[in-house]
Amino acid sequence: MLNRIILIGRLVRDPELRYTSNGTPVCNFTLAVERSYTNRDGERDVDFIRIVTWRKLAETCAEHLSKGVMVAVDGSLQIRKSEKENRTYINPEVVAEDVRFLVWPKDSSRGQERRSASQAQKPNQFDNAASPDAADLDDEDFDVPF
Predict the structure, then answer these.
(1) Which of 6, 17, 105, 141 could make an S-S bridge to 62, C-beta 3.0–4.6 Å?
(2) Does the pLDDT value for residue 142 go beyond 90?
(3) pLDDT surpassing 90 at residue 10
């Protein structure tokens, strides 16, 4: 069986960091994700999806993310049910294993862009390829093996 979901969207509001009773960090935020097709009016509908991160990833997201930032989330879908006044509410959310910052300003102290909240401490072999100069290159500058 497989439960895997990948989303790309923008944060609706700043993330909220809390701690469980035993001190484990948990961060919640909502992602606005456009659908890949247009409706009858020619507009793209938007889904608002709750994201949950835990431990170090939660602390990193709370510290570096803010409203409007575009991220990619890789995780699993979890459905929580709750009952209130004889009604059952179904609350889908994504438990993130990895959050990638897609729009990230230069970190002046390190001189490189960060790639992923869960890999923020790991060196990235592609840092030079992600420099602003790389975006200015034409497609003809690259040799494609196929």
Answers:
(1) 17
(2) no
(3) yes
9 neighbors 71 (Cβ within 8 angstroms): yes
Short-list 92, 97, 120, 98, CA closest to 107? 120
Q: Assess whether pLDDT exceeds 80 at residue 38.
A: yes
Residue range 5-135 forms a domain whose CATH class is mainly beta
